[in-house]
Amino acid sequence: MKIFEAIRKDHDIQRKLLDELIKTSGDTERRTHVFEALKHELKIHEDAEERHFYKPLISDDMMQNHARHGIAEHHEIDELVEKLEDTEQDSSAWLKYAKDLQHKVLHHLDDEEHTFFQLAGKVLSEKEKEGLATKYVDFMDEARNNVAH
User: How far is 30 from 5, CA to CA, in rounded Å?
Assistant: First the structure.
């Protein structure tokens, strides 16, 4: 497996959770559960991606601005998550912020999958792509297991 496939699998999890979150209208218990799962996925993915995808790319001239842009979008996503945490879940503003979060995350995932991955594919060797995937997957597995216990 290469880093791109590993990241894309987690992107699919995020898309699914975002879709579920938007559909939780009127079910506060379900909304809380899905939001907690989404927050965790976004946080561990951000940490893993910054360490095992962006960090190795940021020193490359062709990737530096893209890596910085991706990291900046992670911070924007974090701010939207905080806004959701600070808003009552049964208010109409909460759903608006959840949709804003969905829009921002989907934009970020599309940027990565349709631009960053192609450029990074030209910068990274096959061995680097596989090595980064291993480190990324190990990091994600450990982060998920720590929550399960």
Answer: 30
104, amino acid identity: K
C-beta of residue 36 within 8 angstroms of C-beta of residue 5: no
Task: Identify the architecture of domain 3-148 in CATH.
Answer: Up-down Bundle (1.20)
pLDDT (tens digit per residue) in 106-136 = 999 999 999 999 999 999 999 999 999 999 9
Please give the Cα distance from 84 to 102 (Å, whole number).
12
Say what the pTM is. Answer: 0.93
Domain parsing of the chain, residue ranges:
3-148
Picking from 107, 61, 110, the residue whose alpha carbon sits closest to that of residue 80 is 107
Q: How far apart are CA 19 and CA 23, in angstroms?
A: 7
Degrees to nearest 5, angle at CA 93 with 91 and 97 = 130
Tell me the longest C-alpha to C-alpha distance in the chain: 49
Q: Which two tokens stand for residue 120?
A: 């990074």
Report the alpha-carbon distance of residue 57 to residue 122 in Å, rounded.
11
